[in-house]
Amino acid sequence: MGTCWPKPVDSRPTTNSCSSPVHNDAKLIKNRNRHDSNSNSNNHENSRLSAADPNRGGEGGRGGSDHQGVPLSESKTERNSDGARGKDNNGQKINVASTFTFEELAMATQNFRESNLIGKGGFGSVYKGCLDSDVVVAVKQLNLEGLQGNQEFIVEVFMLSLLHHPNLVNLIGYCAHEEQRFLVYEYMPLGSLDRLLFEPDQKPLGWSTRLKIALDVAHGLEYLHCKTNPPVIYRDMKSSNILLDNDFNARLSDFGVSKLGPIGENTHVSTRVVGTYGYCAPEYVVSGKLTLNSDIYSFGVVLLELITGRKVIDHTRKSGEKNLVMWFLPFLKDHKKFVQMADPLLEMRFSIRSLHHAIAITAMCLQEQPSFRPAISDIVTALESVASQMGISDHHQGRIRVGHKNLEA
C-alpha cells in the first residue's frame, strides 16, 4: 500500500483474490477493446465505438433497423497505477481500464473502512482509496441486487474504456470478484455538484464558477453527442453525477445506463425508462423513445439548478415550488422577474445580462417539443459567448479560467 494513508493497517480480506481475467463479463469487456489491425484507428476527436451495444440486452430495439458496428482501434497496453496505457495507430496516448484483485482494493481502502466512505446511494458505496503507487482513487462497490446492477457494471467499463475527454471522469480499473463488482475512478476532491450547491456547510459557488461548470458539462456532452461514432446518449444527466476537482473542473460520471444513439435514418432508441425523476425528458418518460434531445432537457434542468440554487424536486418547499421546472416556467412570461430566480446566496453578485442569457439558454433546453431544443454544439457556443462576456477564458476542451473575481461569492 502507498503512503497516502497516515500509517499502514493490517488488511486481511477473508475472500480469495479475483482471477485475471476476473469474470466472463470482464473478459467480454476486455475483448471489446481489441479488433483486427486493419481497422481504422480511433482518436480523441472522433472516437469510434462498436455498435454492439452492451446495454441493449433485455430492452426494446432501436427506432429503425440496426446498424453495422464500427470496429475499435487496436492498442497494446501495459498496466500501471493510472490504469493501462498505450498508443493507438496514430501514436496518441489512450487509457484502458486495468483489472484489480479484491485484495488490492481492500488494501487501498483499508478494508473498506467506514471513515473512508465518501458516498452512498442506490448504486452502492464509494470509498476513498490509495493504490500502491500513492495514487488516490475512488472505489465504487456496486449494489448488485438484480441483473441490472451487473449489466450497468459491464456498460460502465465498456463506455469509459473507450471514451476519453477532460470533462468525463477517468476510469482507472475494475474488479469482478465472485458476486461483487468494483469500479476504480480518479479521485475528485470536491465531490459532486449537488453537494456543493445544496449542502448548508458548503461555501456558496460564485456566478462565474457556476458558468464555468455549466460550460464544462456542455463540453463533455458535446463530446458524447458529436465526437463519437455512433453518438452516445448519456441518459443520466443530474447534478449528483457531475464531479469536480480542486479547480472546479467538472466531469461527467456514472455511465452505467448510457446508450449508443441512433444513426442514419433512425430517429430514436426504444428502451425501458431509467433515470431520476425531474431530470428525465417528458417525452422519454411517456414513450420510452430516447434521443439526443433527451440529454438536452436534462442538461437544462442542471443549468436551472446552477442558476437558482434549488433542487429539482424539493418536498420541503410550499405547494407550487416543489418541482423546479414547474416553478420556473411562469417566470418566462416577464423578463423583469428573471432576477428573482437567481440563487439568493449569490447576493446579486452577477451580471444581469449574463443571467438573462443563461435563463434563455435554459428555457430553450426545456422546450416541451424535443425538436425545438438546441443541439449541444449550439449550447456550447451560446455558453462560450456568455463566458467571454464575463471575462472567463475558454481553454482547450472545456478547461477554463474563472475571471472577474469581484463577481465571485
From TrEMBL:
What is the organism field in this record? Fraxinus pennsylvanica
InterPro entries, alphabetized: Kinase-like_dom_sf, Prot_kinase_dom, Protein_kinase_ATP_BS, Ser/Thr_kinase_AS
Enumerate composition-biased segments (Polar residues). 12-22
What is a GO molecular function of this protein?
ATP binding
What are the record's GO terms for cellular component?
A: plasma membrane
In this record, what's one Pfam family? Pkinase
Query: Where is it predominantly found?
Result: membrane
List, as start-end ranges, the regions of compositional bias called Basic and acidic residues. 75-90
Protein kinase domain location is 112-386
- Show the catalytic activity: L-threonyl-[protein] + ATP = O-phospho-L-threonyl-[protein] + ADP + H(+); L-seryl-[protein] + ATP = O-phospho-L-seryl-[protein] + ADP + H(+)
Q: What does the record give as EC number?
A: 2.7.11.1
The protein here is known as non-specific serine/threonine protein kinase
Question: How does the record classify its membrane topology?
Answer: Lipid-anchor
Q: Which residues bind ATP?
A: 140
Determine the domain of life of the protein's source: Eukaryota
